Amino acid sequence: MWSLCRRYGARRAFVHLALLLASFIAAPAMAEKRAPLIWAFGDSLAAGYGLPPAQGFTTRLEAALRRAGVAATVRNGGVAGDTAAQARARLRWGLRGLGATPDLVIVELGANDMLRGLPPAQARANLDAILVELQRRHIPVLLAGMRAAPNLGPDYVRAFEAMYPALAAAHRVPLYPFFLDGVAAQRGLLQGDGLHPNARGVEIIVARILPAVRKALH
User: Fold this and answer.
1) Are residues 76 and 38 in contact, defined by beta-carbon separation less than 8 angstroms?
2) Count of other CB atoms within 10 angstroms of residue 57
3) Active-site residue numbers?
4) Please, where are the H alpha helices in 9-152?
5) How far is CA 152 from CA 20, 53, 75, 126, 160, in A?
6) pLDDT digits (tens, 9 = 90+) for 43-66
7) What global pTM score does this model have?
8) Chain centroid to CA 203
């Protein structure tokens, strides 16, 4: 310090040290202000199956968040055809591939288990393992539920649809009850397969889930 005083004078040395100290204090604060990272971890619904990337769920959700004043980045973690078991198998390397710990993971899974008629208990066990791993890493979660096709029978429907609120309660995570709310069974909002949303359908999904995402992010 005395060398600084001799070279610059007491006043300049004081200013220099004050600015240096301020830069060290500001650095962590600036790091904390990075854009929130959201990971949509799911199947073809999260992946935007059948749509150009610009019209997919993650792109449209990111745009909606930014219009709402939330400068978040939404990354696509959806793989078409994935069951809960397949998603569980890729969870850890998927998180590593993000390059940063997400501030929120939207878990959107179970539709392919249902479409294949797999036992609800199996889907529930795999979803439970996914939630356990995310909570072990202290990563906030928004769990998105799914409805079962009525032709699978009332017992299957009850067991499948009950697993989402049960998992949300057990892990104390917020639940968005039905990912396809307002879109399912609406032909004008679905692609030709009758399962996946078209561009208009995606906009409705995003508009309806947006408040839940914003709440879970904070």
Assistant:
1) no
2) 29
3) 44, 193, 196
4) 10-32, 44-47, 57-67, 84-98, 111-115, 120-136
5) 67, 33, 33, 21, 10
6) 999 999 999 999 999 999 999 999
7) 0.85
8) 17
